[in-house]
Amino acid sequence: MIDPSRLRIFLSVMASGSMSAAASHLGMTSSAVSQHMSALQKETGLTLFERRGRGIEPTAAAHTLARESEGLLAEVRRVDSVVDELRDGTKGSLSIGYFSSAGSAWMPRLARQLLTEMPDLTLQLVLTEAFAPGDGPPVDIDIVPDDPASSIRPGHHVTPLVTDPFVALLPVDHSLARRRRVAMAELADETWISNDIAAGVTHSILLRACRAAGFTPRFAIEAQDHYSAIAFVAAGVGITVVTDLASRGIARSVRRVHLTEPSPVRDIVVLTSPTGQANPAARRAVQILTEVAASSGRSRRPRPARADRLT
Asked: In CA terms, which of 99, 148, 221, 280 is 20 to 30 Å from 228?
């Protein structure tokens, strides 16, 4: 077993650039840091540092170990915190993962109500959509689009929140902007602006809807967030298709139009980890999220089917 405290010293050496600098940052002696690094190399059987002149240079193995250690130490810190709180009979922290449109629409109300009810609670909010499935930091609850590839996690409890339909956003002077509804096929020849990380489930649902309508969209601009994409639409560059949740608060120069034939939707769920299930703050957060999502306006009540539905 690798000693976690030794890994922390190792990461300090990697970040500091030398053992003496790490020793200064950690309040240790240089010889103590050196001894820990020698012990770590023996424990792992790896050569982690090589001499370069009067200094050291990390090996490729050291860089790989450093990348893998970050997540491990974050989990160790989280477990240490849980142990402390269980020993004290309290649970004073809660980590919540979310994606950007859910963050702006729901998280402020959630945070306000939670902190009103639990003023000593510490909230850690993590934008988990920025990570590939399985690579994000561990969180007590995670708000995600429902997708078999990412939302089925061992031991996690799944709570449906809402069904979120897609809408087209058009410049105000667009020929279709006065319509309430438009068939997907009518957008086939438009200049499209992407608004989601290409590997994301939301982007995949949109592409499936386009294929069902008989075309593949031509993305002239690949913006990886809906805020930028909406700004391009407002400037008259092209159109974008976003979910209802992401279309809140658009500028007057942008028109929002419902989609038909098909009408793509995504289901949004909240995943509660095994640790979160034992956390009263997590349970209360899920209750509040369910209430906030249900009252958030145009999105529909959740349905049991998975997110890749086209209606």
From this structure: 148
What distance lies between CA 70 and its chain's CA centroid?
A: 17
Residue partners of 214: CB distance under 8 A and separation at least 6: 185, 188
Task: Please give the single-letter amino acid code of residue 14.
Answer: M
Residue range 240-265, pLDDT digits in tens: 999 999 998 788 899 999 999 999 99
Residues near 278 by Cβ (< 8 Å), separated by ≥ 6? none
What SS3 class is residue 300? strand
pLDDT of residue 117: 92
d(CA 200, CA 194): 12
Hey, what are 283's tokens? 């349970």
Q: What is the Cα–Cα distance from 72 to 162, expressed in whole angstroms?
A: 33
Report yes or no: 174 and 254 within 8 Å, Cβ to Cβ.
Answer: no
CA distances from 168 to 111, 161, 249, 253 (A): 30, 23, 14, 14
CB 245 within 8 A of CB 107: no
